[in-house]
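Weekly structure sync - notes
Attendees: PM, LS, DV (DV joined late)
Agenda: review two folding runs queued last week.

Item 1: First target. Sequence and C-alpha coordinates pasted below for the record.
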Amino acid sequence: MNPHDRNAAPIEARLADSPRGEGRPNRQDSKRESWAESRGAVFAMLFLVTGVLGIPLLWMNKKFSNPERYFWSILVTLYTAALIYGAYLVCMWSYHRIFGYS
Protein backbone atom coordinates (compact mmCIF):
# COMPACT_ATOMS: atom_id res chain seq x y z
CA MET A 1 0.00 0.00 0.00
CA ASN A 2 1.17 3.44 -0.83
CA PRO A 3 1.35 5.67 2.33
CA HIS A 4 0.21 8.66 0.26
CA ASP A 5 -2.95 6.93 -0.89
CA ARG A 6 -5.53 7.83 1.81
CA ASN A 7 -8.27 5.59 0.41
CA ALA A 8 -6.13 2.45 0.60
CA ALA A 9 -4.93 2.93 4.18
CA PRO A 10 -7.19 1.76 7.04
CA ILE A 11 -8.17 4.27 9.69
CA GLU A 12 -6.11 3.91 12.83
CA ALA A 13 -7.31 5.21 16.15
CA ARG A 14 -5.50 5.38 19.43
CA LEU A 15 -6.86 6.17 22.86
CA ALA A 16 -5.46 9.32 24.37
CA ASP A 17 -4.51 9.54 28.03
CA SER A 18 -6.90 11.64 30.04
CA PRO A 19 -5.42 14.88 31.38
CA ARG A 20 -6.55 14.10 34.93
CA GLY A 21 -4.70 10.80 35.07
CA GLU A 22 -6.06 7.34 35.69
CA GLY A 23 -5.57 7.14 39.45
CA ARG A 24 -7.35 10.33 40.49
CA PRO A 25 -11.16 10.52 40.71
CA ASN A 26 -12.98 13.08 38.63
CA ARG A 27 -14.02 16.09 40.76
CA GLN A 28 -17.30 16.40 38.89
CA ASP A 29 -18.17 12.75 39.58
CA SER A 30 -17.50 13.21 43.30
CA LYS A 31 -19.77 16.29 43.31
CA ARG A 32 -22.55 14.26 41.71
CA GLU A 33 -22.10 11.49 44.25
CA SER A 34 -22.16 13.90 47.17
CA TRP A 35 -25.28 15.60 45.77
CA ALA A 36 -27.07 12.28 45.33
CA GLU A 37 -26.14 11.22 48.85
CA SER A 38 -27.22 14.51 50.44
CA ARG A 39 -30.29 14.31 52.70
CA GLY A 40 -31.33 17.83 51.75
CA ALA A 41 -31.20 17.03 48.05
CA VAL A 42 -33.35 13.94 48.57
CA PHE A 43 -35.92 15.97 50.53
CA ALA A 44 -35.93 18.65 47.82
CA MET A 45 -36.53 16.01 45.17
CA LEU A 46 -39.30 14.37 47.19
CA PHE A 47 -41.23 17.46 48.23
CA LEU A 48 -40.46 20.00 45.51
CA VAL A 49 -39.94 18.04 42.30
CA THR A 50 -41.02 14.43 42.00
CA GLY A 51 -43.28 13.53 44.89
CA VAL A 52 -43.96 9.82 45.08
CA LEU A 53 -41.76 9.18 42.01
CA GLY A 54 -38.70 10.12 44.10
CA ILE A 55 -39.14 7.28 46.59
CA PRO A 56 -36.55 5.06 44.83
CA LEU A 57 -34.01 7.87 45.32
CA LEU A 58 -34.86 7.82 49.03
CA TRP A 59 -34.35 4.06 49.25
CA MET A 60 -31.02 4.18 47.37
CA ASN A 61 -29.60 6.79 49.74
CA LYS A 62 -27.48 5.12 52.45
CA LYS A 63 -27.82 8.05 54.88
CA PHE A 64 -31.39 7.08 55.81
CA SER A 65 -32.18 4.22 58.18
CA ASN A 66 -34.97 1.79 57.36
CA PRO A 67 -37.46 3.32 59.86
CA GLU A 68 -36.74 6.76 58.33
CA ARG A 69 -37.27 5.37 54.84
CA TYR A 70 -40.65 3.91 55.82
CA PHE A 71 -41.71 7.14 57.53
CA TRP A 72 -40.70 9.41 54.65
CA SER A 73 -42.18 7.04 52.05
CA ILE A 74 -45.57 7.12 53.78
CA LEU A 75 -45.40 10.88 54.30
CA VAL A 76 -44.46 11.57 50.67
CA THR A 77 -47.22 9.27 49.44
CA LEU A 78 -49.81 11.13 51.55
CA TYR A 79 -48.36 14.48 50.46
CA THR A 80 -48.60 13.51 46.79
CA ALA A 81 -52.16 12.22 47.23
CA ALA A 82 -53.12 15.52 48.90
CA LEU A 83 -51.62 17.50 46.01
CA ILE A 84 -53.48 15.40 43.44
CA TYR A 85 -56.74 15.81 45.39
CA GLY A 86 -56.12 19.57 45.61
CA ALA A 87 -55.59 19.74 41.85
CA TYR A 88 -58.84 17.79 41.39
CA LEU A 89 -60.72 20.26 43.60
CA VAL A 90 -59.34 23.23 41.65
CA CYS A 91 -60.34 21.62 38.35
CA MET A 92 -63.86 20.89 39.59
CA TRP A 93 -64.22 24.43 40.97
CA SER A 94 -63.08 25.82 37.62
CA TYR A 95 -65.44 23.53 35.72
CA HIS A 96 -68.40 24.66 37.79
CA ARG A 97 -67.44 28.31 37.41
CA ILE A 98 -67.21 27.99 33.63
CA PHE A 99 -70.27 25.85 32.93
CA GLY A 100 -72.40 26.82 35.92
CA TYR A 101 -73.83 24.62 38.61
CA SER A 102 -76.06 21.82 37.35
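Item 2: Second target, run right after the first with the same settings.
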Amino acid sequence: MALLRPLNSRFAIRALLVWGLLVVLAAGALASWRYQSLLSTLETESNVLYRLASQRADQHDAHLTALSAVANATDDPGHSLFLDVAATIAHFYPRIVDIQLIPLAVGKKPVGLGALSPETTALLRESVLRSQGQMVLMADPERHGFYILGKRSPNTADARYGLMLVIDARQLLADASHFWSEPGVFLRLSLPKGPLLVGQAGSDAELYFSKALASPSQPLILATGMALGPADLFPMAETTLVLLLLSAAYLVVLAAWRQRVRTRLALEQARLSALESRLAHASRVNALGEMASGLAHELTQPLTAILAQTQASRRIVAQSSSTPLLPVLDETVAQAKRASAILERFRNWSRPQALSVGCFDIRDALHNVRALLASQAALSKTRLMFELPSYPVLVEADPVEMEQVIFNLVRNGLDAVTGQEAGQVTVSLNQTDTQLIIDVADNGPGVLPALRDSLFTPFTTSRPDGTGLGLALSQRLIERAHGEVFLLEDAPETTFRIILPVKHEPMESAG
Protein backbone atom coordinates (compact mmCIF):
# COMPACT_ATOMS: atom_id res chain seq x y z
CA MET A 1 0.00 0.00 0.00
CA ALA A 2 2.88 2.35 0.73
CA LEU A 3 4.17 1.81 -2.81
CA LEU A 4 0.76 2.45 -4.40
CA ARG A 5 0.53 6.03 -3.05
CA PRO A 6 3.57 7.41 -4.97
CA LEU A 7 2.48 5.48 -8.06
CA ASN A 8 -1.01 7.00 -7.91
CA SER A 9 0.49 10.45 -7.34
CA ARG A 10 2.76 10.20 -10.40
CA PHE A 11 -0.15 8.89 -12.49
CA ALA A 12 -2.31 11.88 -11.45
CA ILE A 13 0.44 14.36 -12.37
CA ARG A 14 0.91 12.75 -15.79
CA ALA A 15 -2.84 12.73 -16.34
CA LEU A 16 -3.05 16.46 -15.58
CA LEU A 17 -0.14 17.21 -17.92
CA VAL A 18 -1.74 15.26 -20.76
CA TRP A 19 -5.08 16.99 -20.14
CA GLY A 20 -3.36 20.39 -20.24
CA LEU A 21 -1.68 19.50 -23.55
CA LEU A 22 -5.01 18.41 -25.03
CA VAL A 23 -6.60 21.69 -23.90
CA VAL A 24 -3.85 23.66 -25.64
CA LEU A 25 -4.25 21.65 -28.85
CA ALA A 26 -8.04 22.04 -28.77
CA ALA A 27 -7.72 25.79 -28.21
CA GLY A 28 -5.38 26.06 -31.19
CA ALA A 29 -7.78 24.10 -33.38
CA LEU A 30 -10.74 26.25 -32.28
CA ALA A 31 -8.80 29.48 -32.92
CA SER A 32 -7.75 28.26 -36.37
CA TRP A 33 -11.34 27.32 -37.26
CA ARG A 34 -12.67 30.66 -36.05
CA TYR A 35 -9.97 32.53 -37.97
CA GLN A 36 -10.81 30.75 -41.21
CA SER A 37 -14.54 31.28 -40.63
CA LEU A 38 -14.13 35.02 -40.03
CA LEU A 39 -11.81 35.32 -43.03
CA SER A 40 -14.36 33.56 -45.24
CA THR A 41 -17.15 35.84 -44.00
CA LEU A 42 -15.03 38.95 -44.60
CA GLU A 43 -14.16 37.84 -48.14
CA THR A 44 -17.78 37.03 -48.96
CA GLU A 45 -19.14 40.33 -47.67
CA SER A 46 -16.28 42.26 -49.30
CA ASN A 47 -16.96 40.67 -52.68
CA VAL A 48 -20.66 41.52 -52.43
CA LEU A 49 -19.85 45.14 -51.58
CA TYR A 50 -17.21 45.24 -54.32
CA ARG A 51 -19.67 44.11 -57.00
CA LEU A 52 -22.30 46.59 -55.79
CA ALA A 53 -19.89 49.56 -55.88
CA SER A 54 -18.49 48.50 -59.28
CA GLN A 55 -21.96 48.32 -60.82
CA ARG A 56 -22.86 51.76 -59.50
CA ALA A 57 -19.60 53.23 -60.78
CA ASP A 58 -20.24 51.82 -64.26
CA GLN A 59 -23.55 53.68 -64.38
CA HIS A 60 -21.73 57.01 -64.23
CA ASP A 61 -20.12 56.42 -67.64
CA ALA A 62 -23.54 55.92 -69.19
CA HIS A 63 -24.81 59.12 -67.58
CA LEU A 64 -21.89 61.13 -68.99
CA THR A 65 -22.48 59.71 -72.47
CA ALA A 66 -26.17 60.63 -72.38
CA LEU A 67 -25.54 64.11 -70.99
CA SER A 68 -22.87 64.77 -73.64
CA ALA A 69 -25.30 63.86 -76.41
CA VAL A 70 -27.96 66.17 -74.97
CA ALA A 71 -25.51 69.07 -74.53
CA ASN A 72 -24.38 68.91 -78.16
CA ALA A 73 -27.80 68.20 -79.66
CA THR A 74 -29.06 71.79 -79.51
CA ASP A 75 -27.64 75.30 -79.57
CA ASP A 76 -29.82 76.51 -76.69
CA PRO A 77 -27.61 79.01 -74.81
CA GLY A 78 -29.48 78.28 -71.58
CA HIS A 79 -29.16 74.49 -71.98
CA SER A 80 -32.65 73.97 -70.55
CA LEU A 81 -32.92 70.41 -71.92
CA PHE A 82 -29.53 69.53 -70.43
CA LEU A 83 -30.60 70.86 -67.03
CA ASP A 84 -33.85 68.87 -67.16
CA VAL A 85 -32.00 65.64 -67.89
CA ALA A 86 -29.39 66.42 -65.23
CA ALA A 87 -32.10 67.07 -62.63
CA THR A 88 -33.77 63.76 -63.49
CA ILE A 89 -30.50 61.85 -63.10
CA ALA A 90 -29.74 63.51 -59.77
CA HIS A 91 -33.27 62.69 -58.57
CA PHE A 92 -33.02 58.98 -59.31
CA TYR A 93 -29.33 58.66 -58.35
CA PRO A 94 -28.88 60.60 -55.08
CA ARG A 95 -25.15 59.86 -54.98
CA ILE A 96 -24.71 62.26 -57.94
CA VAL A 97 -24.96 65.57 -56.06
CA ASP A 98 -23.99 67.90 -58.89
CA ILE A 99 -23.73 67.94 -62.70
CA GLN A 100 -21.86 70.72 -64.48
CA LEU A 101 -21.38 71.67 -68.13
CA ILE A 102 -18.26 73.89 -68.33
CA PRO A 103 -17.50 75.74 -71.58
CA LEU A 104 -13.85 75.27 -72.48
CA ALA A 105 -13.64 78.83 -73.78
CA VAL A 106 -12.32 81.08 -71.03
CA GLY A 107 -14.81 83.64 -69.79
CA LYS A 108 -17.99 81.62 -70.23
CA LYS A 109 -19.81 80.48 -67.12
CA PRO A 110 -20.63 76.86 -66.38
CA VAL A 111 -24.18 75.51 -66.43
CA GLY A 112 -25.23 72.99 -63.80
CA LEU A 113 -27.33 72.00 -60.83
CA GLY A 114 -25.16 73.81 -58.28
CA ALA A 115 -22.77 76.72 -58.06
CA LEU A 116 -19.03 76.40 -58.73
CA SER A 117 -16.39 78.73 -57.45
CA PRO A 118 -14.13 80.37 -60.05
CA GLU A 119 -11.14 78.42 -58.68
CA THR A 120 -12.92 75.08 -59.06
CA THR A 121 -14.16 76.03 -62.52
CA ALA A 122 -10.66 76.89 -63.65
CA LEU A 123 -9.28 73.67 -62.17
CA LEU A 124 -11.87 71.51 -63.93
CA ARG A 125 -11.43 73.31 -67.26
CA GLU A 126 -7.66 72.84 -67.09
CA SER A 127 -8.01 69.14 -66.16
CA VAL A 128 -10.29 68.45 -69.13
CA LEU A 129 -8.01 70.26 -71.58
CA ARG A 130 -5.02 68.35 -70.27
CA SER A 131 -6.77 64.97 -70.36
CA GLN A 132 -6.33 64.41 -74.14
CA GLY A 133 -9.59 62.46 -74.30
CA GLN A 134 -9.40 60.19 -71.26
CA MET A 135 -11.69 60.44 -68.23
CA VAL A 136 -10.83 62.92 -65.46
CA LEU A 137 -10.94 61.44 -61.92
CA MET A 138 -10.11 63.69 -58.98
CA ALA A 139 -11.16 64.54 -55.44
CA ASP A 140 -13.66 67.36 -54.95
CA PRO A 141 -11.55 70.32 -53.76
CA GLU A 142 -14.50 71.83 -51.87
CA ARG A 143 -16.04 68.79 -50.10
CA HIS A 144 -14.47 65.85 -48.29
CA GLY A 145 -15.75 62.40 -49.28
CA PHE A 146 -16.78 63.52 -52.78
CA TYR A 147 -15.01 62.97 -56.07
CA ILE A 148 -15.36 64.37 -59.60
CA LEU A 149 -15.67 62.37 -62.82
CA GLY A 150 -15.37 64.34 -66.06
CA LYS A 151 -14.83 64.08 -69.79
CA ARG A 152 -14.70 66.18 -72.95
CA SER A 153 -17.94 66.87 -74.79
CA PRO A 154 -17.70 65.87 -77.54
CA ASN A 155 -14.70 63.68 -76.82
CA THR A 156 -12.60 65.01 -79.73
CA ALA A 157 -9.94 67.61 -80.31
CA ASP A 158 -12.76 70.09 -81.14
CA ALA A 159 -14.43 69.67 -77.77
CA ARG A 160 -16.67 72.56 -76.68
CA TYR A 161 -17.43 71.62 -73.09
CA GLY A 162 -16.13 69.85 -70.07
CA LEU A 163 -18.82 67.60 -68.56
CA MET A 164 -18.57 66.87 -64.80
CA LEU A 165 -20.31 64.62 -62.26
CA VAL A 166 -19.79 65.25 -58.55
CA ILE A 167 -20.33 61.96 -56.70
CA ASP A 168 -20.79 61.23 -53.01
CA ALA A 169 -18.41 58.30 -52.40
CA ARG A 170 -20.31 57.21 -49.28
CA GLN A 171 -23.42 56.60 -51.38
CA LEU A 172 -21.48 54.11 -53.52
CA LEU A 173 -21.36 51.88 -50.43
CA ALA A 174 -24.95 52.56 -49.28
CA ASP A 175 -27.37 49.68 -48.57
CA ALA A 176 -24.52 47.43 -47.43
CA SER A 177 -25.30 44.56 -45.05
CA HIS A 178 -25.33 44.96 -41.26
CA PHE A 179 -22.00 43.12 -41.17
CA TRP A 180 -20.18 46.41 -41.77
CA SER A 181 -21.69 47.95 -38.64
CA GLU A 182 -20.30 45.27 -36.31
CA PRO A 183 -17.47 46.23 -33.89
CA GLY A 184 -13.97 45.75 -35.22
CA VAL A 185 -15.03 45.75 -38.89
CA PHE A 186 -13.92 48.61 -41.12
CA LEU A 187 -14.00 49.63 -44.79
CA ARG A 188 -12.22 52.35 -46.77
CA LEU A 189 -12.70 53.77 -50.25
CA SER A 190 -9.98 55.91 -51.79
CA LEU A 191 -8.88 57.27 -55.13
CA PRO A 192 -6.04 55.37 -56.81
CA LYS A 193 -2.82 56.85 -55.39
CA GLY A 194 -4.99 59.62 -54.01
CA PRO A 195 -6.81 60.82 -50.90
CA LEU A 196 -9.12 58.76 -48.73
CA LEU A 197 -12.83 59.24 -49.52
CA VAL A 198 -14.59 56.95 -47.03
CA GLY A 199 -13.31 55.55 -43.72
CA GLN A 200 -10.33 56.29 -41.53
CA ALA A 201 -6.67 55.59 -42.19
CA GLY A 202 -4.33 53.72 -39.87
CA SER A 203 -6.55 50.76 -38.85
CA ASP A 204 -4.71 47.82 -37.26
CA ALA A 205 -7.03 45.15 -38.68
CA GLU A 206 -5.84 41.56 -38.75
CA LEU A 207 -7.82 40.42 -41.80
CA TYR A 208 -7.50 42.54 -44.91
CA PHE A 209 -9.12 42.81 -48.36
CA SER A 210 -8.09 45.39 -50.98
CA LYS A 211 -9.12 45.61 -54.62
CA ALA A 212 -9.74 48.27 -57.28
CA LEU A 213 -13.31 48.62 -58.52
CA ALA A 214 -14.04 46.93 -61.86
CA SER A 215 -14.67 50.26 -63.59
CA PRO A 216 -12.14 51.49 -66.16
CA SER A 217 -13.01 55.12 -65.51
CA GLN A 218 -13.24 54.90 -61.68
CA PRO A 219 -10.74 52.34 -60.31
CA LEU A 220 -11.38 53.37 -56.72
CA ILE A 221 -9.60 51.22 -54.12
CA LEU A 222 -11.98 49.35 -51.80
CA ALA A 223 -10.23 48.12 -48.64
CA THR A 224 -11.91 46.18 -45.83
CA GLY A 225 -10.66 44.51 -42.68
CA MET A 226 -11.46 43.16 -39.25
CA ALA A 227 -9.60 43.56 -35.97
CA LEU A 228 -9.51 40.28 -34.05
CA GLY A 229 -9.47 39.96 -30.30
CA PRO A 230 -9.49 37.00 -27.89
CA ALA A 231 -13.30 37.08 -27.73
CA ASP A 232 -13.44 36.64 -31.52
CA LEU A 233 -11.12 33.62 -31.59
CA PHE A 234 -12.49 32.06 -28.40
CA PRO A 235 -16.25 32.73 -28.17
CA MET A 236 -17.70 31.78 -24.81
CA ALA A 237 -20.28 29.22 -25.96
CA GLU A 238 -18.05 27.32 -28.38
CA THR A 239 -15.05 27.35 -26.03
CA THR A 240 -17.11 26.01 -23.10
CA LEU A 241 -18.61 23.27 -25.24
CA VAL A 242 -15.20 22.17 -26.58
CA LEU A 243 -13.72 22.02 -23.07
CA LEU A 244 -16.64 19.98 -21.75
CA LEU A 245 -16.50 17.50 -24.61
CA LEU A 246 -12.73 17.21 -24.39
CA SER A 247 -12.82 16.61 -20.63
CA ALA A 248 -15.56 14.00 -20.93
CA ALA A 249 -13.71 12.16 -23.69
CA TYR A 250 -10.46 12.28 -21.76
CA LEU A 251 -12.07 10.85 -18.63
CA VAL A 252 -13.53 7.99 -20.63
CA VAL A 253 -10.15 7.21 -22.20
CA LEU A 254 -8.44 7.50 -18.84
CA ALA A 255 -10.85 5.05 -17.24
CA ALA A 256 -10.36 2.61 -20.11
CA TRP A 257 -6.59 2.92 -19.85
CA ARG A 258 -6.66 1.74 -16.26
CA GLN A 259 -8.40 -1.46 -17.25
CA ARG A 260 -5.23 -3.31 -18.10
CA VAL A 261 -6.95 -6.60 -18.25
CA ARG A 262 -8.37 -5.61 -21.63
CA THR A 263 -4.84 -5.44 -22.97
CA ARG A 264 -4.24 -9.03 -21.88
CA LEU A 265 -7.46 -10.13 -23.57
CA ALA A 266 -6.42 -8.31 -26.74
CA LEU A 267 -3.04 -10.07 -26.72
CA GLU A 268 -4.75 -13.41 -26.27
CA GLN A 269 -7.10 -12.64 -29.15
CA ALA A 270 -4.13 -11.71 -31.33
CA ARG A 271 -2.48 -15.03 -30.50
CA LEU A 272 -5.64 -16.94 -31.46
CA SER A 273 -5.91 -14.96 -34.68
CA ALA A 274 -2.32 -15.83 -35.59
CA LEU A 275 -3.08 -19.49 -34.91
CA GLU A 276 -6.14 -19.34 -37.16
CA SER A 277 -4.05 -17.75 -39.91
CA ARG A 278 -1.54 -20.59 -39.72
CA LEU A 279 -4.36 -23.15 -39.87
CA ALA A 280 -5.86 -21.41 -42.92
CA HIS A 281 -2.44 -21.45 -44.58
CA ALA A 282 -2.13 -25.15 -43.89
CA SER A 283 -5.57 -25.71 -45.44
CA ARG A 284 -4.50 -23.90 -48.60
CA VAL A 285 -1.37 -26.01 -48.79
CA ASN A 286 -3.47 -29.16 -48.43
CA ALA A 287 -5.82 -27.96 -51.16
CA LEU A 288 -2.84 -27.36 -53.44
CA GLY A 289 -1.62 -30.89 -52.74
CA GLU A 290 -5.05 -32.27 -53.60
CA MET A 291 -5.01 -30.34 -56.85
CA ALA A 292 -1.60 -31.73 -57.71
CA SER A 293 -2.84 -35.20 -56.89
CA GLY A 294 -5.85 -34.72 -59.15
CA LEU A 295 -3.63 -33.43 -61.92
CA ALA A 296 -1.44 -36.53 -61.67
CA HIS A 297 -4.56 -38.69 -61.77
CA GLU A 298 -5.82 -36.90 -64.88
CA LEU A 299 -2.49 -37.34 -66.64
CA THR A 300 -2.21 -41.04 -65.72
CA GLN A 301 -5.08 -42.12 -67.98
CA PRO A 302 -3.89 -40.56 -71.27
CA LEU A 303 -0.30 -41.58 -70.61
CA THR A 304 -1.38 -45.18 -69.89
CA ALA A 305 -3.35 -45.20 -73.12
CA ILE A 306 -0.34 -43.86 -74.99
CA LEU A 307 1.75 -46.70 -73.59
CA ALA A 308 -0.82 -49.34 -74.51
CA GLN A 309 -1.32 -47.99 -78.03
CA THR A 310 2.41 -47.85 -78.58
CA GLN A 311 2.78 -51.48 -77.53
CA ALA A 312 -0.02 -52.45 -79.88
CA SER A 313 1.71 -50.57 -82.70
CA ARG A 314 4.85 -52.56 -82.09
CA ARG A 315 2.98 -55.84 -82.30
CA ILE A 316 1.27 -54.77 -85.54
CA VAL A 317 4.57 -53.72 -87.06
CA ALA A 318 6.04 -57.05 -86.04
CA GLN A 319 3.29 -58.82 -88.05
CA SER A 320 4.25 -56.69 -91.12
CA SER A 321 0.75 -55.35 -91.59
CA SER A 322 0.85 -51.56 -92.07
CA THR A 323 -2.86 -50.90 -92.83
CA PRO A 324 -4.23 -51.26 -89.26
CA LEU A 325 -1.30 -49.23 -87.97
CA LEU A 326 -2.71 -45.81 -88.98
CA PRO A 327 -5.78 -45.67 -86.64
CA VAL A 328 -3.71 -46.85 -83.75
CA LEU A 329 -1.08 -44.20 -84.32
CA ASP A 330 -3.81 -41.52 -84.71
CA GLU A 331 -5.25 -42.48 -81.34
CA THR A 332 -1.77 -42.30 -79.86
CA VAL A 333 -1.34 -38.72 -81.15
CA ALA A 334 -4.79 -37.74 -79.81
CA GLN A 335 -4.00 -38.99 -76.33
CA ALA A 336 -0.64 -37.23 -76.38
CA LYS A 337 -2.35 -33.95 -77.31
CA ARG A 338 -4.82 -34.47 -74.49
CA ALA A 339 -2.00 -34.77 -71.97
CA SER A 340 -0.31 -31.71 -73.44
CA ALA A 341 -3.53 -29.70 -73.20
CA ILE A 342 -3.97 -30.60 -69.54
CA LEU A 343 -0.45 -29.48 -68.76
CA GLU A 344 -0.95 -26.25 -70.75
CA ARG A 345 -4.12 -25.41 -68.80
CA PHE A 346 -2.27 -25.93 -65.56
CA ARG A 347 0.55 -23.64 -66.67
CA ASN A 348 -1.94 -20.95 -67.78
CA TRP A 349 -3.71 -21.14 -64.45
CA SER A 350 -0.53 -20.80 -62.38
CA ARG A 351 1.22 -17.90 -64.18
CA PRO A 352 0.05 -14.50 -65.48
CA GLN A 353 -0.67 -14.06 -69.15
CA ALA A 354 1.59 -11.92 -71.37
CA LEU A 355 0.07 -9.02 -73.29
CA SER A 356 -0.63 -9.53 -76.98
CA VAL A 357 1.18 -6.33 -77.91
CA GLY A 358 1.69 -5.67 -81.61
CA CYS A 359 1.94 -2.90 -84.14
CA PHE A 360 -1.44 -2.17 -85.76
CA ASP A 361 -3.41 0.60 -87.44
CA ILE A 362 -5.45 2.38 -84.75
CA ARG A 363 -8.03 3.28 -87.41
CA ASP A 364 -9.14 -0.38 -87.43
CA ALA A 365 -10.10 -0.14 -83.75
CA LEU A 366 -12.02 3.09 -84.45
CA HIS A 367 -13.90 1.47 -87.34
CA ASN A 368 -14.88 -1.46 -85.09
CA VAL A 369 -16.17 0.93 -82.40
CA ARG A 370 -18.22 2.83 -84.97
CA ALA A 371 -19.78 -0.41 -86.20
CA LEU A 372 -20.57 -1.56 -82.65
CA LEU A 373 -22.20 1.70 -81.51
CA ALA A 374 -23.93 2.79 -84.73
CA SER A 375 -27.21 1.15 -83.70
CA GLN A 376 -27.18 2.79 -80.23
CA ALA A 377 -26.54 6.19 -81.81
CA ALA A 378 -29.41 5.69 -84.25
CA LEU A 379 -31.83 4.70 -81.48
CA SER A 380 -30.96 7.80 -79.42
CA LYS A 381 -31.05 10.02 -82.56
CA THR A 382 -27.45 11.06 -81.92
CA ARG A 383 -25.05 12.06 -84.67
CA LEU A 384 -21.92 9.88 -84.42
CA MET A 385 -18.97 11.36 -86.39
CA PHE A 386 -15.48 9.91 -86.96
CA GLU A 387 -12.79 12.21 -88.37
CA LEU A 388 -9.92 9.93 -89.43
CA PRO A 389 -6.91 10.53 -91.67
CA SER A 390 -6.61 8.67 -94.97
CA TYR A 391 -3.17 7.21 -94.15
CA PRO A 392 -2.35 4.43 -91.65
CA VAL A 393 -1.63 5.50 -88.07
CA LEU A 394 0.46 2.81 -86.39
CA VAL A 395 0.62 2.24 -82.66
CA GLU A 396 2.24 -0.49 -80.57
CA ALA A 397 -0.35 -1.76 -78.08
CA ASP A 398 -2.92 -4.47 -77.52
CA PRO A 399 -5.63 -3.98 -80.20
CA VAL A 400 -8.43 -5.40 -78.04
CA GLU A 401 -7.53 -3.15 -75.09
CA MET A 402 -7.35 -0.04 -77.26
CA GLU A 403 -10.72 -0.88 -78.78
CA GLN A 404 -12.13 -1.40 -75.28
CA VAL A 405 -10.94 2.07 -74.14
CA ILE A 406 -12.32 3.91 -77.18
CA PHE A 407 -15.60 1.99 -76.98
CA ASN A 408 -15.99 3.00 -73.32
CA LEU A 409 -15.36 6.72 -74.01
CA VAL A 410 -17.69 6.86 -77.03
CA ARG A 411 -20.45 5.03 -75.17
CA ASN A 412 -20.13 7.46 -72.26
CA GLY A 413 -20.54 10.32 -74.75
CA LEU A 414 -23.67 8.71 -76.21
CA ASP A 415 -25.12 8.29 -72.71
CA ALA A 416 -24.36 11.95 -71.94
CA VAL A 417 -26.34 13.31 -74.91
CA THR A 418 -29.22 10.84 -74.73
CA GLY A 419 -32.57 12.63 -74.46
CA GLN A 420 -31.45 16.00 -75.80
CA GLU A 421 -32.02 17.47 -79.24
CA ALA A 422 -29.18 17.65 -81.79
CA GLY A 423 -26.94 15.36 -79.72
CA GLN A 424 -23.55 14.75 -81.28
CA VAL A 425 -20.47 12.68 -80.43
CA THR A 426 -17.29 13.34 -82.45
CA VAL A 427 -14.20 11.13 -82.54
CA SER A 428 -11.13 12.69 -84.17
CA LEU A 429 -7.70 11.19 -84.80
CA ASN A 430 -4.59 13.31 -85.38
CA GLN A 431 -0.90 12.47 -85.58
CA THR A 432 2.29 14.42 -84.88
CA ASP A 433 5.91 13.33 -85.25
CA THR A 434 6.02 11.64 -81.86
CA GLN A 435 2.43 10.92 -80.78
CA LEU A 436 -1.10 10.34 -81.92
CA ILE A 437 -4.08 12.13 -80.37
CA ILE A 438 -7.61 10.75 -80.14
CA ASP A 439 -10.33 13.19 -78.98
CA VAL A 440 -13.80 11.97 -77.99
CA ALA A 441 -16.11 15.01 -77.64
CA ASP A 442 -19.83 15.35 -76.96
CA ASN A 443 -22.16 18.35 -76.66
CA GLY A 444 -23.83 17.03 -73.52
CA PRO A 445 -24.25 18.87 -70.19
CA GLY A 446 -20.59 18.29 -69.21
CA VAL A 447 -18.85 16.81 -66.18
CA LEU A 448 -19.93 18.04 -62.76
CA PRO A 449 -17.22 20.21 -61.12
CA ALA A 450 -17.35 18.03 -58.00
CA LEU A 451 -16.33 14.96 -60.06
CA ARG A 452 -13.49 16.47 -62.10
CA ASP A 453 -10.68 15.83 -59.59
CA SER A 454 -11.74 12.20 -58.94
CA LEU A 455 -12.94 11.37 -62.45
CA PHE A 456 -10.51 8.47 -62.96
CA THR A 457 -10.84 7.15 -59.40
CA PRO A 458 -12.67 3.78 -59.12
CA PHE A 459 -16.38 3.94 -58.19
CA THR A 460 -16.71 7.60 -59.27
CA THR A 461 -19.84 8.02 -61.41
CA SER A 462 -22.73 10.43 -61.99
CA ARG A 463 -25.15 7.82 -63.34
CA PRO A 464 -27.48 6.02 -60.90
CA ASP A 465 -26.80 2.67 -62.59
CA GLY A 466 -23.07 3.25 -63.21
CA THR A 467 -20.27 1.30 -61.54
CA GLY A 468 -17.62 4.00 -61.80
CA LEU A 469 -15.02 1.53 -63.10
CA GLY A 470 -14.98 2.33 -66.84
CA LEU A 471 -12.69 5.37 -66.77
CA ALA A 472 -10.40 3.87 -64.12
CA LEU A 473 -9.94 0.72 -66.25
CA SER A 474 -9.45 2.82 -69.39
CA GLN A 475 -6.72 4.85 -67.69
CA ARG A 476 -4.95 1.68 -66.59
CA LEU A 477 -5.03 0.18 -70.09
CA ILE A 478 -3.76 3.41 -71.70
CA GLU A 479 -0.92 3.67 -69.19
CA ARG A 480 0.07 0.07 -70.01
CA ALA A 481 0.45 1.25 -73.59
CA HIS A 482 2.76 4.09 -72.35
CA GLY A 483 0.09 6.74 -73.01
CA GLU A 484 -2.26 8.95 -71.06
CA VAL A 485 -5.94 9.83 -71.02
CA PHE A 486 -7.45 12.94 -69.43
CA LEU A 487 -10.32 15.45 -69.59
CA LEU A 488 -9.59 18.70 -71.43
CA GLU A 489 -10.28 21.67 -69.16
CA ASP A 490 -10.85 24.55 -71.61
CA ALA A 491 -12.56 22.71 -74.49
CA PRO A 492 -15.94 24.11 -75.66
CA GLU A 493 -17.42 20.60 -75.42
CA THR A 494 -16.85 17.73 -73.01
CA THR A 495 -13.67 16.22 -74.51
CA PHE A 496 -11.60 13.23 -73.39
CA ARG A 497 -8.15 13.05 -74.98
CA ILE A 498 -5.98 9.95 -75.48
CA ILE A 499 -2.28 10.42 -76.26
CA LEU A 500 -0.23 7.41 -77.42
CA PRO A 501 3.32 7.18 -78.78
CA VAL A 502 3.52 6.75 -82.57
CA LYS A 503 5.12 3.59 -83.96
CA HIS A 504 7.50 4.66 -86.77
CA GLU A 505 7.41 1.44 -88.78
CA PRO A 506 6.35 0.67 -92.40
CA MET A 507 2.90 -0.84 -92.77
CA GLU A 508 4.30 -3.94 -94.57
CA SER A 509 6.44 -4.94 -91.59
CA ALA A 510 3.58 -4.15 -89.21
CA GLY A 511 1.28 -6.45 -91.17
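Discussion on item 2: The CA atoms of residues 365 and 403 lie 5 Å apart.
Action: LS to circulate a short write-up before next sync.
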